[in-house]
Fold this sequence. Notes:
The complex is a heterodimer. By secondary structure, chain A is mainly beta. Chain A has a domain at about 15-45. Chain A is built from one helix and three strands, in the order ββαβ. Chain A has one helix at about 35-40; strands spanning about 20-25, 30-35, 45-50. In chain A, a hairpin with a 4-residue loop joins strand 1 (about 20-25) and strand 2. Chain A starts with 17 loop residues before the first strand and ends in an 8-residue tail after the last strand. Chain B is of the alpha+beta class. Chain B has a two-stranded parallel sheet with strand order 1-2. The longest helix of chain B has 16 residues, at about 80-95. Classes of the chains: A mainly beta, B alpha+beta. At the A-B interface, strand 1, strand 2, helix 1 and strand 3 of A face strand 1, helix 1, strand 2, helix 2 and strand 4 of B. Strand 3 of chain A pairs parallel with strand 1 (about 5-10) of chain B, so a sheet runs across the interface.
Amino acid sequence: MSEACCGLKLGAKVPDFEMATYDPTKDDFGKFSMQEQIKNKRWTILFFYPADFTFV
Amino acid sequence: MGCDIVTVSTDTQFVHLAWKKSEKELAHVKYAMAADPTGTVSRTFGVYDEGTGLALRGVFIINPEGKLLNAEINYYNLGRNVDELLRKFKANIYMARKTNEVCPAKWKDEGDKTLVNPGAKMVGKVHEALQA
């Protein structure tokens, strides 16, 4: 992800990335992987926010 | 077609757990809460604020092929309109099925007026095309 600094262009393929997650439906930690989303043909909505314990 | 909503902040997954369990407003949350403590993913999407180490309020819709279709970024003090997010998401799903149609500004849901791929016939007649 060397291009990671200026945001992505619309229509561009999102580079692969992974993040650790907390999954409330399982009450357990898990992993989000962009590659897995593509493999499983899933739409993704990424919703960024500044910090926990604040409100949207 | 399946969709996953994933929320992301620079907090760790451990803080996400603590917040989810302590905040009653989050009792019904079903989406995964992702951790980006290094800001790597936030930087990729251009929402990382180097001054604060926090992520701005950004929403991104990515299709099943991994292509970025929508980006919206608000500064800290402006919330996002969830209805508008859903509208954009529904429109994307619809247009993925009907690749020769486009959804104009007032499109809300299946059955609403769409435009067929802009062609020469529409030049000078956009107003007519938009009337239901």
